[in-house]
């Protein structure tokens, strides 16, 4: 008589008896986990190096500007200029963070969370994008708030403090616009590539590939070409919106974008809408494959 070929072990699996949370909680859980991923939290030391290096550089710049403002009253960098000055750092930040958010999931085909309900493709895409935009706001918006603290202690009178508060509020909206444009483009590119290093290089290339076109248009003997040149590059595109929003007292001739500020804003909105639409479409396709 032969012996049994296998043994059944009871490893303690039980039916889930807790509350079954809804769609909003599923998205919130994914958003929270993704935001932690942006800063490498809950992962190895190696994954924390670059995001926290960016945090450190952004904080040092803000602290130096804050200290100079507090000691001398001199405005070294305006609130709205802060994300422009650190634009290259922001590109590198989203280029590293976006592949960490989506390329790993694409490569393994597995999510790090276990959900009590099916996750919709659009919810996944928007949660990842929201996490990256939030990361940009925490790093660069946080720097603007540090500069505001220095300004609040250097100006005299409550009205001046409120003026500074209004300025930093507008600048934070401007930083959010940077986050939306850079984040939507970065997550879209990363969603097309499974290898993180390749995705990071492709994201950086997406931001700089049109820079030579801007340079060529700027050399043409046409004032209108000069004013429209910046619209073809995402970095200078957002910068053009900033010129339009934060230089209202300058005449159109004094602005590099001329009278085309509303056009810059429209193209920015359309660019974000296009990237988000393509991103959601991408994950609807992935969910069916």
From TrEMBL:
TM stretches of this protein: 49-70, 124-151, 171-190, 197-218, 263-281
Keywords per UniProt: Membrane, Transmembrane, Transmembrane helix
Name of protein: ABC-2 type transport system permease protein
Source organism (scientific name): Asanoa ferruginea
């Amino acid at each position: 008589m032969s012996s049994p070929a296998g043994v059944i072990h009871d490893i303690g699996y039980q039916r889930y008896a807790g509350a079954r949370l809804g769609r909003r909680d599923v998205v919130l859980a994914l958003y929270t986990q993704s935001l932690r991923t942006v800063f490498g939290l809950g992962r190895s030391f190696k994954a924390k190096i670059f995001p926290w290096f960016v945090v450190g550089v952004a904080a040092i710049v803000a602290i130096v500007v804050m200290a100079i403002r507090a000691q001398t009253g001199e405005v070294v960098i305006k609130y709205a200029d802060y994300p422009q000055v650190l634009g290259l750092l922001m590109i590198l930040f989203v280029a590293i963070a976006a592949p960490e958010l989506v390329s790993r999931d694409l490569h393994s085909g597995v999510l790090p969370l276990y959900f009590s309900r099916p996750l919709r493709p659009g919810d996944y895409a928007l949660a990842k994008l929201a996490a990256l935009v939030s990361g940009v706001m925490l790093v660069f918006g946080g720097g603007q708030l540090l500069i505001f603290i220095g300004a609040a202690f250097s100006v005299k009178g409550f009205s001046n403090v409120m003026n500074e508060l209004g300025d930093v509020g507008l600048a934070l909206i401007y930083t959010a616009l940077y986050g939306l444009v850079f984040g939507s483009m970065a997550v879209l590119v990363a969603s097309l590539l499974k290898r993180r290093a390749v995705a990071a290089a492709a994201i950086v290339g997406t931001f700089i590939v049109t820079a030579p076109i801007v340079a060529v248009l700027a050399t043409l003997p046409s004032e209108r070409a000069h004013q429209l040149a910046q619209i073809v590059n995402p970095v200078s595109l957002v910068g053009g919106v900033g010129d339009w929003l934060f230089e209202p007292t300058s005449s159109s001739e004094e602005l590099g974008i001329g009278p085309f500020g509303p056009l810059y804003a429209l193209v920015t909105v359309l660019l974000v809408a296009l990237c988000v639409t393509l991103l959601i479409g991408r994950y609807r396709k992935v969910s069916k494959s």
